[in-house]
Fold this protein.
Amino acid sequence: MHTAAGVEARLPIRSDMDLVWVRQHVRQAAALLGFGLVDQTKLVTAASELARNTLVHGGGGRMEAAHVTTTGGIDGLRLTFSDSGPGIVDLDRALSDGYTSGGGLGMGLGGARRLVHDFAVDSAPGSGTTVRVTSWVSRPPRPREGV
Amino acid sequence: MSEEFSRPVAGHVPVLRLGDVLLVTLQGDLHDSTAHRLQQDLSETIARSGVGGVVIDISGVEIVDSFLGRVLAEIAAQTELLAARTVVAGMRPAVAITLVELGLTLPGLRTALTTEAAMELLAQPVVSSRSGGRREESP
């Protein structure tokens, strides 16, 4: 693939200006990998939620974007948000809708999970938080050959 | 105060007055601080000018996350308390799909497909849902 250059990135998340860069990069990378408009919008929105968590709850951190492929040759975009903040004490609670520790609507983490295909959180009190999400470029279903 | 308002500042969203309505057009990618500032500017302008409605055109906005969604809902609630109504116009279909999946259906928010439709909506007499008053239901 020739898209790696425009997809791979490591961006700091230190201010609300950085949130704008994160959204712009994810939009560009998703478009490059062939995501449709709705899927691009979902990915950028999820990235915005997660980057804001990194900034507000994690005290800042970074996002890494990577191009991944399945063995079946399907392209995906993997985004990893990490911080060395206080970590998440009760992950189940943090993922539930309406729960907030930061004065938001409490839709960030649980909402972001619904907007992507794969979602993993690694966090422990005192040791920071890493959230990794991946979405795959969906192709329209078509009949198998030779059926 | 009005001077402060007309001064072009980085990260400042212009608020236009059209008769009894304030028109705000959001474009591109908004900083959090810009959205917060708009929220403040709008309430001050409504209180000062006594307009009856606000139209926020978001047709140029590519994503609405929970932060911007909350700001829009808060603007609508604030204007309601200041005796005005807010209509959010021109939401992109992809944004609507994403908001629902995110879990943000923003039930209190009035919407219209275009700015023109929003202006028409605001021109209609107020039907208060708050007082629990008569609301015409279709059979």
Remarks:
- The interface with chain A takes residues 29, 31-33, 62-67, 69-70, 92-95, 97-98, 101-104 of chain B (CB under 8 Å).
- The CA atoms of residues 38 and 108 of chain B lie 19 Å apart.
